[in-house]
Write a structure and sequence with these properties.
Length: 314
Amino acid sequence: MTRYHDQIAEAAARIAGHARVTPVMRLGSGAFGSEADISLKLESLQHAGSFKTRGAFNNLLSLQVPEAGVSAASGGNHGAAVAFAARERGVKATIFVPEISPAAKIEAIRRFGADVRIGGAQYDDAQAACDRFVAESGALKIHPFAAIETILGQGTLAREWHEQEPDLDTVLVAVGGGGLISGIAAWFAGSRVKVVGVEPEHSRALHAALAASGPVDVTVQSVAADSLGARNVGPLVHEICRDTVEQVALVPDAAITAAQVTLWRDFRLAVEPGGAAALGALLSGAYRPQPCERLGVLICGANVDLAKLAALQG
């Protein structure tokens, strides 16, 4: 997968000045009761509140956009990122969301100027509605994970992270459809860095695909389903991840919400469930680092309903 290095570097140059360089918070040894040397990559501070902005810009800057504009299906974050990038580029965006999308994410998509349409109960229903719209209108579809332009855009996060933290041993990365971890794993392929995916116990599309040696459908039921709720990662994500992802840790919903509480209580970081899942793997013991292991934890999404976050705090 080192063949993607040059393409990720090209994507990084392409989106420079459009996506933010997000900071790393170095916590050192002993954080969260761990003997590992821990740091947090705060991609939750990205434009539109998530890493998805990188892939959105790489699509818009790589591909020809027709008069009908762009369209995407999204649980929220991808739609907000596409809407933001489209607004910045002066392009029309039509975003299909499922009924499970949080109001805060739908509001963000509308705030960035996109036409928002409810596309069914679950993410895959919204994707089907988006596909019908694209076929009828001629709009450019921007897929949240099953497109090389998206994966390369997300890979720019790993390139940036590597420059900020050159001595990492392992990175923990939340997985939904797998576009993010594919880009990260493609960048770190051939290096000493282990890439560990993190999925909710009851939303494990990548875990299932790796176990079955190919993409399979899974049922989805998780507090993080709006962002980590893909039913199938698809062949491209599986092809990249099968040889580059060290393992996939599964976390209960309680660990995810505990991570949200910890991030707000200790760091005043308002993070959505999917954005906190990677930390949940560390807090719950789903991933157990070695003493002195240099561990990077990706905090990848901030589009949280603040009323729900407040309720979690008790």
